[in-house]
Specification:
185 residues, Trna Endonuclease, Chain: A, domain 1, 2 domains, 5-stranded mixed β-sheet
Length: 185
């Protein structure tokens, strides 16, 4: 008769195992809000941060506190399908100042409006959209812990911000480009 030793499943290692299988944006969007926060926390943990989760309710705009190199940062997670606008970013800035945090991360499965991207310039706020989050998943594994790729979190080029001010979206710009190419033939 063979005997097996049973080890209780540590919830953190179970989460890490489960989260290691996530590789698509739809899978992230299917997580409940608390699981999404835990997933984001695991990513930061794998990047060398000490993480502290806040309670699910009454968190006052902070989902995760991060500590690294003597600095405290805050993270707010938004599991959205659409866009995160400037008001959310402005609120996070106030929360960052209130908590005397070195920097803040706004992590979403959606995307950020151009006014939100423009508003964070010059501030210690890092916007992490769904596509960037997928890139982080590709970068981060327990065996290889790179620094946070700051160039990945930077806003779009200034050119796109000016287009937004004039109401010209990327689709319109692409249409005009194709029209110019066709007319030059």
């Amino acid at each position: 008769m063979t005997s097996y030793t049973h080890k209780p499943i540590d919830s953190r290692s179970y989460e890490a195992y489960h989260f290691a299988r996530i590789s698509k944006l739809d899978e992230l969007k299917s997580l409940d809000p608390v699981a999404f926060e835990r997933f984001v926390g695991e990513l930061f943990s794998n990047m060398g941060y000490e993480i502290e989760y806040t309670p699910s309710s009454g968190d006052e705009g902070v989902d995760i506190f991060l500590k690294k190199d003597g600095n405290t940062s805050i993270v707010q997670c938004k599991r959205y399908d659409g866009q995160v606008g400037q008001p959310v970013v402005r609120d996070l800035y106030g929360v960052m100042l209130h908590n005397h945090a070195y920097e803040a991360y706004l992590v979403t499965t959606g995307y950020f409006s151009l006014p939100a991207q423009a508003w964070v310039e010059g501030k210690q706020i890092r916007l992490v959209d769904g596509n960037t989050l997928l890139e982080w998943i590709g970068f981060v594994s327990p065996d290889k812990i790179p620094p946070i790729p700051v160039d990945v979190v930077k806003s779009r080029p200034v050119f796109f911000k000016y287009l937004a001010y004039f109401g010209i979206g990327f689709g319109v710009l692409l249409f005009l480009f194709i029209l110019a190419v066709i007319s030059s033939m």
